[in-house]
Amino acid sequence: MPHVLVVEDDDKIAAPLVRTLEREGYTVERVAEGMPAIDRVREQDVDLVLLDLGLPDMDGLDVCRQVRDNGYRGGIIILTARDGELDLVVGLDVGADDYLAKPFGLSVLLARVRALFRRHGIDAGPAAAPATPAPAPTTGVRVDVDARRVWVADTELPVTSKEFDVMALLDSKRGAVISREQLINDIWDENWFGSTKTLDATIGRLRQKLEEVDAPARITTVRGVGFRLEDVPDA
């Protein structure tokens, strides 16, 4: 499985990030400063670097520049609170492959990671499967993670950004129950302090949209646990 190096000094961000990546089956290491990251990448067994720019010992852009100058050819995704166009351009110019501004949904990050592995020709194993969904002949419902689009047969389902994130997470383990906690943590951030009714409202809108097009799949509630996207072959 791919080897991911998380370079992030904020424990509140790094911990859920590491857990999520490990849950996908990736081998994950985490360092909190730039120089240890440069030294670790030099060992040549890291497939992807998730790189924060605001590190305590040096700017993440300098880390990116140095690992590229040292010959690193793996993937680099910058994670930062800086969302200005200039920072984006500079980050890409010094060798980053992609750029995510904080806060971001973990499901969105995973989609970017899988897409980057494909571009680099890295076999991501089972974790990559949701990123390339094939049309399902028995259900007709498919989620295109890269394009962020949901299809029911040949009809595109109009969804908002959060609706897509919920649908993509449920679809990634279709038939299995996804807990309310995981949905909130992965899509709204584990530090979300808003009402959980936000999740219920999003699920409600998705159910209505699936019903309106007679989609042969439905979102069911598992009381006290979470939700499940399941196929309904005879719909």
From TrEMBL:
Protein name: DNA-binding response regulator
CC terms in the record's Gene Ontology section: cytosol; protein-DNA complex
SUPFAM superfamilies xrefs: C-terminal effector domain of the bipartite response regulators (SSF46894), CheY-like (SSF52172)
Species annotation: Knoellia flava
Response regulatory domain ranges (all copies): 3-117
Sequence positions bearing 4-aspartylphosphate: 52
Gene Ontology MF annotations: phosphorelay response regulator activity; transcription cis-regulatory region binding
Record keyword Phosphoprotein present: yes
OmpR/PhoB-type domain mapped to chain residues: 133-231
Pfam families referenced in this protein's UniProt entry, alphabetically: Response_reg, Trans_reg_C
Keywords on record: DNA-binding, Phosphoprotein, Two-component regulatory system
Regions recorded as binding DNA: 133-231
Biological process annotations from GO: regulation of DNA-templated transcription
InterPro entries assigned to the protein according to its UniProt record, in alphabetical order: CheY-like_superfamily (IPR011006), OmpR/PhoB-type_DNA-bd (IPR001867), Sig_transdc_resp-reg_C-effctor (IPR016032), Sig_transdc_resp-reg_receiver (IPR001789), WalR-like (IPR039420), WH-like_DNA-bd_sf (IPR036388)
PROSITE patterns to which the protein is assigned, alphabetical: OMPR_PHOB, RESPONSE_REGULATORY
